[in-house]
Amino acid sequence: MVFLEAEMSSNVLLSPEHLTPQGLLLRKSIITRLLEDIANKKASKEYGYFIAITSLNSIGEGRVRALTGDVLFPVNFMCLTQKPTKGELLTGTVEKILKHGLFLKSGPIENIFISEKLTGEYKYVPGENPVFLSEKQGKLEKGVSVRFKVVGFRWMEAERHFQLLGSLAGDFLGPI
């Protein structure tokens, strides 16, 4: 996956109980709240998945909200992100096998589907523990690590994640 370091800005809202006269504790409260906000957002269409905040560039002047007493601080920071791209080779773990294909998980991406039509030489074998078999490359079963190619992806705004379509058709793709 492509890693990017992006400059981002956000507004951090602190309640009055987090405000102290000591500057270091205030800075700590802002950073803690920023980390919580980024973890809750999980990802964005523009930047991909948020991995880590690498630096806090600036904290603006706080503005007090009249009704609640909360203080809103504008902050600028650098964030390490991870975004899938079409044609990229990734590794994932088989999570589920169905007649029509298999589902993988790779890092923060939990919705990767490889259609039976894109498995190359693999054929579906039903049973209590279904698998995809290939005479040359072995078998794909739950828990196996697989190298695959990203054929396409789509951003799902409501769930705040990407759905990927992968392929095993090609050289050096399949079980690792």
From TrEMBL:
It comes from Rhynchospora tenuis. DNA-dependent RNA polymerase which catalyzes the transcription of DNA into RNA using the four ribonucleoside triphosphates as substrates. InterPro entries: NA-bd_OB-fold, RNA_pol_Rpb7-like_N_sf, Rpb7-like, Rpb7-like_N. GO terms for molecular function: single-stranded DNA binding; single-stranded RNA binding. It is found in: Nucleus. GO terms for biological process: DNA-templated transcription initiation. Residues 11-69 form the RNA polymerase Rpb7-like N-terminal domain. GO terms for cellular component: nuclear DNA-directed RNA polymerase complex. This is DNA-directed RNA polymerase subunit. Keywords: DNA-directed RNA polymerase, Nucleus, Transcription. It comes from the Eukaryota. Belongs to the eukaryotic RPB7/RPC8 RNA polymerase subunit family. The keyword Transcription applies.
